[in-house]
Design a protein that fits this description.
By secondary structure, the chain is an alpha+beta fold. It is built from 27 helices and 36 strands. This is Carnosine synthase 1 isoform X2. It comes from Camelus bactrianus.
């Protein structure tokens, strides 16, 4: 007998609840009498029930088989009958033959077979151009293309959406390699929710291919072994559920590819080959699917996560893969490695006997015996036995061992006993109910998992409960039907499911991070979403979700079916975020990175310590930066492809300097894709240089107009429209000040109190509230004396001079609006709230994002910012607009024609997953930024500014830069360092921003207040509670 290697996985430490269960939650409702569906104890003769239910692909999904629930007797010492979804015996050889990917049956897997004789009720045109020129299909493949087109029309029609329009007779032209192209190859039914959401977030760029013949792989120049994916024909999706059948000449180049890799009808061998080793990001691959379909591997992976409960399991594995060898012990999981299948009777009997009597099984009365491995996905066989029956379990395990091939396993796992819930009032009549929970979780910015949606299925406990054999419903409705209707109970259950589902994806992502490109199926192959099937059981007198298996399409399809109830707009319905929304955002984010990888960009002005993120992000995105900077010793000179030392502060010579820089660029042979800047001093020079080099940018005249604050306001005051509302409604009266004489004139024209500021200033340096003429003269004289040139305060625009302006003081709350514009179209807007300033100064004190304003007020601010930018001629770029919201509506403070400063880029990236730096770089390259149409915040941030004048003592001792950085690294706060040194001065800018996150503004505010009190940032002269009072 071959001596196996045995890994013993110990139970969890004392105090940690172990969940030794596997079946779906079986609800016993008091008052239900014994019946054929609820047998009395006298009917406990073991029997076998065969279920032949199939999904739309003709297969029984793996997770669905786990939903077959048992009806247990009312006392725990009785055992339920056995169930089997495929009979054990010689006839197994037929239904459970080899199902390796290369031998897969189905239309695209090399086998033979026509699509099922599906009946799709409804009417639509069948005279459509499904043929792809240059890629003829055989009869069977053609039949599948027609089948999937009809399935799509049926799905659209049942969702109340219009029929697909055929535009293939007039091919669409585009810009291959310069536009987002999200391509899906798979069943319309499975991916409908993704397709519809993609049509909303990126109109016309979400494409469904109904046949592999519509796609072509071509070798990628300069990337050996990799290929680009071209789309010649597809169904494109647009807002409102509009779809079009399009041909593309030239073909569009995919920037993201997702293929359904299930067995049976759907992408098989050809889809797997199309997905392998692509240059573009892919959301699935056959190699990753093999790992996720290995139940033993994923169970061990989840068991090692502290937040995920899994069934107690004994596994016999034959020549296990490297990923299952060794490693840390997993609670409740015992793995026995076999190097041979013969002569294992004694070992199996000993192991099974010990497992059946172990405490790991808890109160479980039954065990299930099943197979695990890639070949057994989709079709599964299992048999249930009372825990007390050792010999039948041993015989079944030995019989299954003969079926194993290398890297496959036989599992013996605990089956959870039924949980009894106290139903309020009288229990409803009818059979007992069973509940299945499935969760979709997506990979978001920074590889962080995010629960997208939870969908449940409720059905009779005496019948199989499968994904496609139960009506989807929300968690709230499902729990209420089963007796749990209190809001606190539902909230707690959602929290538990969220934690477990996100931990499951985190485990998968951690596994993938350690795999090579070959093991993943390509350099760009990642798992971007995951379905997790749960059952509920009682642990420690609390309902706990237990993860049974991982899947992709089934849970996503269930969410789509639920959303299909409201796909067509209906009066009175509140829009809810689609399950696929985070997934589509990830598709767009990865597409943007793909489009920008290797782009050559000229950057004018490096900035200070607050812009250190630029160099890290450029490296992460694969951008090739060439820097023009006045400081020859700037640290960034060592972080770029090319460093050009050039004085960019002499703005009276901007036109001449633009020509000189253009000559330097040409002399160095730089092949630039774009040119941009985020530094105030360089914005006009950048526009002039782009004009010289023929690169995309807003016009220099627009940049000059936005850069000079009084010109901005006076120009917009004259813009009366149409269209309406005109920019003049947002502008504020002001008067430019170049001499003392101008002050007297301005006092007569501008109502006081007013605000005096530098024409070209930044960071609120020199901004002051003035209440009468003497204060105006005094402040003008002080600025004229103290801030005469760049050397007096670098980086605030003194290279343009120290001219000032007086503008009317506007009462109201202050807000920032960060915009992304392309071709004069608004692509994205992010609104944040600012706290009250320390008058008479205007240095920022506190901020909150997202805004706490009502949606209508938020929309008013966005429109005001957008219309003011357009009114100044700013059509392309990322812009920061400061406004006040008054009783009469928004009023403009100023336009910063560049990316928002301070913490704004970091916060927007954290909350929305949108990188303004990458968006600015894309616009500079003439590419439309790949942004979601309606990004939603994933939380709230509330922050406070620290000033050297107020916090020098604590910042030099207990709350040092190192202390704040350590708290940031621990996730207790978010630190944005804005200045390098603690240098006090009369005209100061904030030293740093300290923020706390929370699920609500109130919680984030309370965390920040407590933190500031503990760190000594709060004080009588810097009252944090007052600064945060606007965010209640």
């Amino acid at each position: 007998m071959v001596q196996p290697a045995v890994h013993c996985f110990l139970p969890p430490p004392p105090g940690a609840p172990h969940i030794p269960f596997t079946k779906h939650f079986h609800l016993h409702v008091p008052g239900v009498q014994p019946s054929s569906s609820n047998p009395a104890p006298s009917s406990l003769v073991p029997r076998t029930v065969s279920t032949q239910g199939q999904d739309s692909r003709g297969l029984i999904p793996l997770g669905d088989l786990m939903c077959l629930l048992l009806t247990l007797p009312k006392t725990h010492h009785f055992c339920p009958p056995q169930l089997s979804l495929d009979p054990l015996g010689p006839e197994w050889d037929c239904p459970l033959g080899s199902k390796d990917l290369e031998e897969e049956e189905g239309p695209w897997g090399g086998g033979s077979g026509l699509p099922p004789p599906g009946f799709f009720p409804g009417s639509w045109s069948h005279e459509v151009g499904l043929d792809c020129k240059g890629s003829p299909e055989g009869a069977e493949a053609r039949a599948w293309t027609v089948y999937y087109y009809s399935l799509l029309q049926s799905c659209l029609q049942q969702a109340g959406l219009p029929e697909t329009q055929d535009r293939s007779q007039v091919p669409r032209t585009g810009c291959p390699g310069a536009e987002v192209t999200l391509c899906i190859l798979g069943s319309p039914c499975t991916f409908l929710s993704v397709l519809l959401e993609g049509g909303v977030q990126s109109p016309g760029n979400m494409l469904l291919c109904l046949s592999p013949a519509w796609l072509t792989k071509v070798p990628a120049p300069g990337q050996p072994g990799e290929a680009a994916l071209l789309v010649s024909k597809a169904v494109s999706f647009h807002p409102g559920g509009l779809t079009f059948l399009d041909d593309f000449v030239p073909p569009r180049r995919a920037t993201y590819f997702l293929a359904g890799l299930g067995l049976g009808p759907g992408p098989g061998r050809e889809a797997a080959e199309l997905a392998r080793d692509l240059t573009c990001p892919t959301g699935a691959s056959a190699e990753l699917a093999r790992l996720l379909e290995d139940r033993l591997l994923t169970r061990r992976l989840l068991a090692q996560q502290g937040d995920v409960a899994v069934p107690a399991t004994l596994a016999f594995t034959y020549k296990p893969p490297a990923l299952l060898r060794g490693g840390d012990a997993s609670p409740g999981l015992r793995l026995v490695e076999l190097n041979g299948k013969e002569g294992q009777e004694t070992l199996v009997k000993e192991e099974v006997g010990a497992f059946l009597h172990s405490e790991a099984l808890g109160d479980a009365l039954q065990v299930a015996v099943k197979l695990s491995g890639w070949r057994w996905r989709g079709r599964q066989a299992l048999r249930l036995y009372p825990r007390t029956e050792l010999d039948p379990v041993v015989d079944t395990v030995l019989a299954l061992l003969e079926k194993l091939e290398e890297e496959e396993s036989v599992l013996v796992e605990a089956v959870c006993p039924p949980a009894r819930l106290p139903f309020p009032g009288s229990p409803p009549p009818g059979p007992e109910l069973a509940l299945r929970i499935c969760a979709v979780v997506c990979r978001t910015q920074g590889d962080r998992p995010l629960l997208s949606k939870v969908v449940c299925g409720v059905g009779r406990g005496d019948r199989p409960l499968r994904h496609q054999n139960s009506l989807p419903r929300t968690l709230e409705v499902a729990l209420a039907q089963c007796g749990l209707g209190e809001a606190s109970q539902v909230t707690d259950m959602r929290r538990r499911v969220k934690a477990a589902a996100e931990a499951a994806l985190a485990a998968v992502l951690a596994l993938e991070a350690g795999l090579s490109a070959e093991q993943r199926g390509g350099r760009q192959a990642r798992t971007d979403f995951l379905g997790v099937d749960f059952v509920l059981t009682v642990a420690g007198r609390a309902l706990t979700p237990v993860a049974l298996e991982l899947n992709g399409g089934l849970c996503l399809e269930a969410c789509g079916a639920l959303e299909g109830l409201w796909a067509a707009p209906r009066p009175g319905l509140v829009a809810e975020e689609a399950a696929a929304a985070p997934l589509v955002e990830t598709m767009l984010r990865r597409s943007a990175r793909y489009l920008m990888e290797g782009k050559q960009l000229l950057l004018l002005g490096a900035g200070g310590v607050s812009k250190k993120f630029v160099w890290e992000a450029a490296r992460d995105y694969g951008l090739k930066l060439h820097l023009v900077e006045s400081d020859p010793n700037h640290f960034a000179s060592q972080l770029v492809q090319t460093f050009i030392h050039f004085d960019v502060t002499e703005h009276q010579r901007d036109e001449e300097n633009a020509r000189l820089l253009a000559e330097l660029v040409r002399a160095r042979g730089l092949q630039l894709d774009g040119c941009f800047s985020y530094w105030d001093d360089c914005l006009v020079l950048t526009a002039l240089l782009c004009q010289e080099l023929g690169l995309p940018c807003s016009p220099p005249a627009a940049m000059r107009l936005a850069k000079q604050k009084s010109r901005t306001q006076l120009h917009l005051l004259c813009r009366h429209g149409p269209p309406w509302p005109a920019p003049s409604l947002y502008a504020v009266p002001c008067c430019p000040l170049e001499s003392e004489a101008d002050v007297d004139k301005a006092v007569r024209q501008v109502p006081l109190p007013g605000v005096m500021k530098l024409e070209f200033g930044a960071g609120a340096v020199g901004v002051r509230l003035v209440e009468d003429a003497p204060q105006c003269h005094e402040h003008f004289s002080r600025i004229a004396r103290d801030l005469q040139g760049e050397a007096d305060h670098p980086g605030i625009g003194l290279g343009w001079g120290n001219a000032m302006l007086l503008m009317e003081f506007i009462e109201g709350t202050e807000h920032d609006v960060d915009l992304v514009l392309f071709g004069g179209r608004l692509l994205a807007a992010f609104v944040s709230d600012n706290g009250p300033t320390r008058l008479p100064g205007f240095t920022e004190t506190a901020a909150c994002m997202p805004t706490g304003l009502a949606p209508e007020q938020e929309a008013q601010l966005v429109q005001a910012a957008f219309r003011c930018c357009l009114g100044c001629g700013l059509l392309d770029g990322v812009f920061n607009v400061e406004l006040k919201l008054t009783g009469a509506g928004p009023r403009l403070i100023e336009i910063n024609p560049r990316m928002g400063g301070f913490y704004l880029r970091d916060w927007i990236l954290e909350l929305y997953g949108v990188d303004l730096l990458l968006a600015a770089a894309m616009v500079a390259c003439g590419l439309r930024p790949a942004l979601p149409a309606h990004p939603r915040a994933r939380g709230h941030l509330v922050g406070i500014m620290c000033l050297v004048s107020q916090h020098l003592q604590v910042l030099s001792s207990t709350t040092s830069r190192e202390t704040l950085q350590a708290l940031h690294d621990q996730g207790l706060l978010r630190l944005n360092l804005l200045e390098e040194a603690l240098v006090p001065g009369e005209y100061e800018e904030p030293y740093c921003s300290v923020a706390c996150a929370g699920p609500s503004p109130a919680e984030a505010r309370l965390r920040l207040l407590g933190l500031c009190q503990g760190l000594g940032i709060d004080g009588p002269h810097y009252p944090i509670a007052y600064f945060l009072s606007h965010f209640k």
